[in-house]
Amino acid sequence: MTAGDDTQTPPADGPFTTRQLLRLDEALKQADQTTGLSFSIYCGRLDEPVREAAEKLHGELAEPARSVLLAASPEQRQLEIVTGEQARKRLHDRDCKLAAFSMAAAFNGGDLAGGFISGLAMLVNLAGRS
């Protein structure tokens, strides 16, 4: 899911309600507008090895160099944050780890949407304005 991406209808058994999807979309738009980076989320199964699968998804984004992908696989209990070359200049590994800890805490409490939103908010604050 990327900001403004309404071309795909989520499956009826997807992990998010319509209200949560709207909140996620708004958080993504705000993140993009505030930072000038391009944020995306993925929630679903990731092939093994998980990091490589997340990097492959990131590489398929419209502008990978300035993109940040938050990829979570709840069933596998895996979370990856992948940053492109330009994004990495503003979001260091330490920053992404802090956001991941925040997200994992929400995920462990059963709040997938809230975890993504808190992770996005933290990354936006750490990246700063464009």
Brief characterization of the structure:
Keywords: Membrane, Transmembrane, Transmembrane helix. By secondary structure, the protein is α+β, with helices and mostly antiparallel strands.
Descriptive overview:
With 130 residues, the chain is an alpha+beta fold. The protein has a single domain, classed as Diaminopimelate Epimerase, Chain A, domain 1. It is built from 5 helices and 3 strands. Strands 1-2-3 form a 3-stranded mixed sheet, sandwiched between helices. A hairpin with a 4-residue loop joins strand 2 (67-73) and strand 3. The model is unreliable at 6-10 (pLDDT under 50). Keywords: Membrane, Transmembrane, Transmembrane helix.
